[in-house]
């Protein structure tokens, strides 16, 4: 007698789930800062090459996001904010996510090398590897300094945009890198303040979970100081004009006032965390304003 | 009501359509990059 076993047919993941794997909302800021880094460069490149370079930055960021979700599927399942992502929700198998992430990483770096130059492709490769290996695999579950060091991964796009246009690295894009790098801690810690229970449930050692709210508030205030210096430095060093200088100064002042408010207060009972939410919302808008002002400043002057 | 196999086929079709569109866009992009590079080479 022979027995036949039916092979279960698995539902292939929808293309929209592959798109969700790339974290399109996070990509917006990455693409914008990369584009501004490119537009601020003193060299013009063919529009199609500029478009391809920005596309590569977006694809590289998407690939890093996909690999991050592949590695963190267990964590994502424990957090309300991320539980509906394709992997924890069971709409995609992990191997597909891994293949997609690795394939997209290689594709974005190779295309950048072909369309722009090897320096831009190299920095793009470093940024993907940094986000996946240093931040996701090494730091995120081990230390509350995860987003301080890991923040470098999100700071690379202006540097890549500049390198794609000029083939070199200069002081201005390094300062832009420093600005995003130093902006990351207050931005994420403000978020972590009102998402603390989510991070605690998932066992992610974010600063408010490990060191408490008082220490986090102090750190938000302290990190705002070097961030403000990095934001004003391009103007102070004569690398940009008054449009950037005044806009960045004003936007940074608002940031500093909000950060100071968060630093000085203490959490009350049934606290809605409004100052923290305001700081988080402004921090997102802040980068758009400062980088946008840089481009306008370049065009005008 | 559609059975599982129909759903799988429908999903495979939609993925194939997206892949075809992306491949077409990639071919056009590579062509445009080549033209831009040739032009840049001619001006130098």
Tell me what you see in this structure:
The complex is a heterodimer of chains A (about 300) and B (about 45). With about 300 residues, chain A is mainly α. Chain A folds into two domains: about 15-165, Tetracycline Repressor, domain 2, CATH 1.10.357; about 170-300. Chain A has 13 helices and no strands. Chain A has helices spanning about 15-20, 25-40, 45-70, 75-80, 95-115, 120-140, 145-165, 170-195, 195-200, 205-210, 215-235, 240-265, 275-300. The mean pLDDT of chain A is about 95. In chain B, about 90% of the residues lie in helices and about 0% in strands. Chain B has one helix at about 5-44. The model of chain B has no long low-confidence stretch (mean pLDDT about 90). Classes of the chains: A mainly alpha (about 300), B mainly alpha (about 45). The interface of A and B includes residues 11, 15 and 52 of A.
Write the layout of secondary structure elements.
The complex is a heterodimer of chains A (301) and B (44).
Chain A lengths: L14 H7 L2 H16 L7 H25 L1 H6 L15 H22 L2 H22 L6 H21 L4 H24 L1 H7 L4 H4 L2 H24 L5 H23 L9 H27 L1
Chain B lengths: L3 H40 L1
């Amino acid at each position: 007698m022979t027995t036949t076993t039916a092979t279960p047919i698995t539902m292939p993941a929808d293309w929209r789930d592959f798109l969700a794997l790339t974290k399109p909302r996070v990509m917006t800021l990455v693409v914008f800062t990369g584009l501004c880094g490119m537009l601020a460069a003193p060299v013009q490149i063919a529009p199609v090459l500029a478009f391809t370079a920005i596309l590569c930055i977006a694809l590289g960021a998407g690939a890093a996001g996909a690999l991050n979700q592949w590695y963190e599927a267990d964590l994502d399942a424990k957090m309300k904010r991320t539980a509906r992502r394709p992997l924890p929700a069971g709409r995609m198998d992990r191997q597909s996510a891994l293949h997609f992430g690795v394939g997209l990483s290689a594709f974005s770096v190779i295309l950048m090398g072909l369309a722009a130059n090897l320096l831009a492709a190299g920095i793009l490769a470093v940024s993907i590897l940094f986000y996946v290996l240093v931040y996701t695999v090494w730091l995120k579950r081990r230390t509350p300094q995860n987003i301080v060091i890991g923040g470098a991964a999100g700071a690379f796009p202006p540097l890549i945009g500049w390198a794609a246009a000029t083939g070199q690295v200069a002081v201005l894009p390094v300062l832009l890198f420093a600005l995003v790098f130093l902006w990351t801690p207050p931005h994420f810690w403000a978020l972590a303040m009102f998402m603390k229970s989510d991070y605690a449930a998932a066992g992610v050692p974010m600063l408010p979970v490990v060191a408490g709210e008082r220490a986090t508030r102090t750190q938000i205030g302290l990190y705002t100081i070097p961030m403000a210096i990095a934001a004003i430095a391009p103007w102070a060093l004569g690398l940009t004009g008054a449009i950037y200088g005044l806009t960045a100064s004003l936007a940074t002042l608002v940031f500093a006032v909000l950060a100071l408010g968060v630093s000085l207060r203490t959490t009350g009972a049934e606290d809605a965390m409004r100052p923290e939410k305001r700081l988080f919302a402004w921090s997102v808008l802040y980068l758009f304003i400062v980088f946008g002002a840089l481009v306008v400043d370049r065009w005008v002057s | 009501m559609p059975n599982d196999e129909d759903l799988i086929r429908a999903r495979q079709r939609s993925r194939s359509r997206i892949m075809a569109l992306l491949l077409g866009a990639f071919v056009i992009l590579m062509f445009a990059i080549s033209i831009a590079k040739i032009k840049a080479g001619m001006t130098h």
